[in-house]
Amino acid sequence: MKKFIIYILGFFFFFIIIIFLILAYLLSTAINETTKESEIIKSVTEGYEFNIFNWEKENFFDKWISYINPFDNHNKITSSEQLLQYFSLVERISTNENLYSKLFIENLDLQHKIKKGEIDTKLAKIQTNKINSEIEQLLEKINKDKIIKNENKLYAEQFLEENISSAIQSNEVNIFDNIFYVPVDFTLGKTPKLLVVSPRDKIYRKEDKLLSSNISLEVINNMELTLLEKNNLSAIVVSTGGVSTYPSMVSEGDLLYVLQTAAHEWLHNYLALFPLGRSYFSSTDMQSINETICDIFGDEVGLIAYKKIMGNKIYKEINQTKNTDNDFNFNLFMKDTRLKVEKLLSEGKILESESFMNDQRRFLSSKGYDIRKINQAYFAFYGTYGGNPESSSNHYDNLVKIRKRYENLGDMIHDIKYADNIEKINSLLE
């Protein structure tokens, strides 16, 4: 009962804060949309915007209704085994959806060959029937699995939220000293995409816009090309791992990724109550500081929660590797690329820098790293996160030094949350 009361009080308190922040966001958006760039972005993205208010309306009360409902079984997922069954289901759906896409494209290619007379009609019919049968069976499996997943999604989220909450209140973190007034609340699923815009003559995160998660690759390419050719802007549409709405949005992935991302987004929500979070849009440095400190926090808290859930099984998942060249140093390569691009841009060699980034992307592909596009906007976005190799700032190193001065993570957050400019952050290094 005590836990329930704390959650309810936290909910109403945070609800008031969120309403305030939404109104502030609307005001700032109304001001910013008078600029030429915003009008350009608005015209390019019209019809594909992500409506955050509709999303909040549909998702804000879901978890709380479940907690209040006396007939709802809050403990449907109570063990790591049950949780892993859920994540295995998510992985199977993803695998089957990828297979469906390949079969769909294969079918289109086959129809194209039939029209051009490049294949025997009888053979084509046999192959078409086989593909259609496989697609039908695959869709049946996908739909059945999605029904099961949707029935258990809320309980998986609640189980994960409780473990993240426990990690935040642990001795290693201990932000609240048993007063937990910002409950962990997130939803798993497809997250919005983000349009990031940068000038071409420098790497600078000039403007962002959330887009629908279902936007097609063709539309994405058209947006980026229009902004480049008609407006002389570098643009890229990227997938988001999470968005700090309330509840936060977290994309599906493996267990450790979900825990770390959810903790990252939770800290954004918490910091919004303090000067550090409110200074997010005041400068590029403060934007990067916010994202970097949330990365550090998310990694540490997510790992604590993961150990609590999985125990000795932890290394099995963490040590999984991609199908990439193990002798190739991706981080060093991307860091060198960023520095070389900045040098070329500082010399006014825009076309040379763009050609160089294209060449680097192709080289990365040969090493097993498939990146759709690398441009100024790419570095502007990924460089916001100080721990990424795409960043050229020293924010991550400085924040790691600050972290080492504190016995637990919560003490660091307590001190740093009142810093609203880079000078105050640097003073913690003295």
Walkthrough of the structure:
This protein is mainly alpha-helical and 430 residues long. Helix content is 63%, strand content 6%. The strands form 2 sheets. It has a 3-stranded mixed β-sheet with strand order 1-6-5. A 3-stranded antiparallel β-sheet has the order 3-2-4. It is globular, with a radius of gyration of 24 Å.
Provide a short characterization of the protein structure.
63% of the residues lie in helices and 6% in strands.
Notable traits:
430 residues, mainly alpha, three-stranded mixed beta sheet, three-stranded antiparallel beta sheet, 6 strands, globular
Q: Structural class, please? A: mainly alpha
Distance between the termini: 45 Å
Anisotropy-based shape: globular
Mean pLDDT: 85
Give the topology, please.
Elements: H1 2-32, H2 36-45, H3 52-59, H4 62-68, H5 80-115, H6 121-168, E1 186-188, E2 193-199, E3 207-211, H7 217-229, E4 233-239, E5 242-243, E6 248-250, H8 255-271, H9 275-278, H10 284-310, H11 314-318, H12 330-346, H13 350-366, H14 376-382, H15 395-404, H16 409-416, H17 422-427
Parallel strand pairs: 1-6
Antiparallel strand pairs: 2-3, 2-4, 5-6
